[in-house]
């Protein structure tokens, strides 16, 4: 092999996810869930999509966040915000964090004319 990862079992899902993420059918925020039992390749599939060159070409920002069983919306939001805004202040109010993140991400797609 040439260093490429061979991904078996869910090969059809990556192109489907890429198409969903890159379509302009969403009126706002799009949430896409990858669900399944442990060991089914959910994280690998998400990483393959995240690392796909077409994602970098389509979006201004992207963030990788690990979510554990101890779901903490404040820390998850802070992690995303810090990945798109290195100067973000250390705020602990979820509403303020989400408002700031919304302001940073609203309408941020590379293929939209106002962002060219």
Automatic annotation (TrEMBL):
Species this protein is from: Gossypium stocksii
NB-ARC domain sequence ranges: 16-109
Lineage: Eukaryota, Viridiplantae, Streptophyta, Embryophyta, Tracheophyta
GO molecular function terms listed in the Swiss-Prot or TrEMBL record: ADP binding
UniProt-recorded name of the protein: NB-ARC domain-containing protein
Gene3D superfamilies the UniProt entry points to: P-loop containing nucleotide triphosphate hydrolases
PANTHER family given in the database record: DISEASE RESISTANCE RPP13-LIKE PROTEIN 1 (PTHR36766:SF51), PLANT BROAD-SPECTRUM MILDEW RESISTANCE PROTEIN RPW8 (PTHR36766)
Keywords attached to this entry: Plant defense
Gene Ontology process terms (BP): defense response
């Amino acid at each position: 092999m040439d260093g490429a990862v061979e991904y078996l079992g869910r090969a059809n899902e990556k192109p489907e996810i890429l198409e969903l993420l890159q379509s302009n059918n969403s009126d706002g925020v799009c949430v896409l869930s990858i669900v399944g039992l442990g060991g089914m390749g959910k994280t690998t599939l998400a990483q393959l999509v995240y690392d796909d060159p077409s994602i970098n070409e389509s979006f201004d920002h992207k963030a990788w966040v690990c979510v554990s069983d101890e779901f903490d919306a404040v820390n998850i939001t802070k992690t995303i915000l810090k990945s798109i805004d290195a100067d973000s202040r250390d705020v602990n109010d979820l509403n303020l964090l989400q408002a700031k993140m919304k302001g940073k991400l609203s309408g941020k797609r590379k293929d939209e004319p106002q962002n060219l």
